[in-house]
Design a protein that fits this description.
This protein has about 375 residues and is α/β, with parallel strands linked by helices. Helices cover about 30% and strands about 25% of the residues.
Length: about 375
Amino acid sequence: MDTTQELLSQVAPLVIQWRRQLHQMAELSGCENETAAYITAELKKMPGISISYPCKTGVVGTLKGNNTNSACAFRADIDALPIEEETGLSFASKHSGVMHACGHDGNAAMVLGAAWVLSHMQEQRGREIRFIFEPGEETPPGFSSEIVASGSIDGVEALYAVHVDAFTPVRHIRACAGHAMAANARFTIEITGDGGHAAFPHQCIDTVYISSMIVGQLQSIPAHIMDPIQPCVITVTSLRSNTEAYNVIPSKVTIKGTVRCLQDDQLDTIVFMVKKMAIRIAQTYSADATFSSEKGYGSLYNDPLLCKKVQNAVSKLYGEGSFIKDVPVMGGEAFSVYSKYVPVCYIKVGTMVETGTPYPHHHCKFDMNEKGLLAGVSLMVDLAEKR
């Protein structure tokens, strides 16, 4: 067994230990104080790794190389979600209403594993390797822009993110070359008018009916106004009035939702279309409408050459068919910020449970197959060794 394989065997139980400890200390975006302290303590045990703090609760470990002008980096997000855990795990979150329901505990454990193996290798290293533990990914704007501003990715030739995936089998890995995840924005529409008695809608302005018209007509934007080969999703997620009485037409209804598309330059156009359509429909029925929006993350573009490198590495490690060419998804990711500055590749590591139901990410019963974590560690070690 060669040195790398020996080190991977040694780190395997540590990765599971780290994941379970991190799972218990789940903390919300920007509040990852205990998590950051724990990651720092573990990095300090690894030979040759220096530690810096690029932002609030963010941690970067750096393993120096002979060439200070060249570096590769691996990123894990570390925040949890405001979800009450219902997994029944012995190491369930100790913080009520907060859970690692997206798998960031597994992501951080994998990057810690790669740092441990690479720091224990004896040979001279050509380039610098950085291990970025990013807070606040679940809550835009997050901290990725601050990490960039800190200089933590200066000189990086390749930046990889690893993320566990609930529906990919163990020892299988996905990546999507090109546009992989969506740019997104959230919007709020308020419809106001003279409310009244439910028996006499003709005597007032029916804000609920008007709101329902807006919700339905918004779907005409991706269906009939946008280019059909350019993915676009408009989803209304909340429709709430200022009264819950059965016999009252409310004077105000608030609509909330999101807009998502794969091209950054289309996002503003789509948001404007939503605004214009909502205001015009409200005016048609003599109601008033106000509109506000807030951008989330931009689109994530995976460098095709890095994706090819990942494909080759996965095929070598686990055989043909173990790499899955992924397709774009309409979720958003803070990792997209880095793709504007350096070549990046977002990698999904298979951690599908062997028995029972594979609950999706952000579910109160989400769990992962911990056997899959070592595959992510092995891949990162292999990628770090190759220019």
